[in-house]
Structure to design on (144 residues):
């Protein structure tokens, strides 16, 4: 009985037998590769940032700030900026301060919002923070 070929062997066979792909497929493949490298970059920034949240004892608040930080990581990758650049460090403390304020305010009012909607808004707030940082530090100076 012949052993079952490994997945790697199957990939080698597929590559050897591959035909030229069309432009649409090339574009799709290029976007997938770019997306994969962006995911790796976001993951690397996240590994550096997540320990800064360890001091926050309230689990829900920690989750909320984590979502904003994750959004910031994505924003840095999208804007092609370094998340650990010294000029960008103020953003993290600003996010912690602002998200904590929002959390406290919503706790006082017994909010009745959709939790998934809140989580998306927190994530998006982090992305927007980086876009604003990019405008403030770089783009506005180029335009004026």
């Amino acid at each position: 009985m012949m052993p079952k070929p490994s997945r790697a062997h199957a990939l080698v066979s597929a590559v050897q037998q591959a035909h030229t792909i069309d432009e649409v497929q090339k574009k799709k493949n290029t976007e997938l590769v770019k997306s994969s490298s962006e995911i790796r970059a976001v993951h690397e920034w996240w590994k550096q940032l997540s320990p800064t949240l360890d001091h926050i004892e309230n689990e829900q608040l920690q989750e909320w700030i984590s979502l904003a930080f994750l959004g910031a990581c994505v924003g840095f990758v999208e804007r092609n900026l370094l998340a650990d650049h010294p000029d960008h460090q103020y953003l993290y403390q600003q996010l912690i301060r602002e998200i904590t304020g929002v959390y406290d305010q919503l706790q006082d009012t017994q909010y009745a919002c959709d939790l998934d909607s809140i989580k998306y808004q927190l994530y998006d707030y982090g992305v927007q923070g980086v876009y604003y940082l990019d405008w403030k530090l770089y783009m506005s100076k180029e335009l004026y």
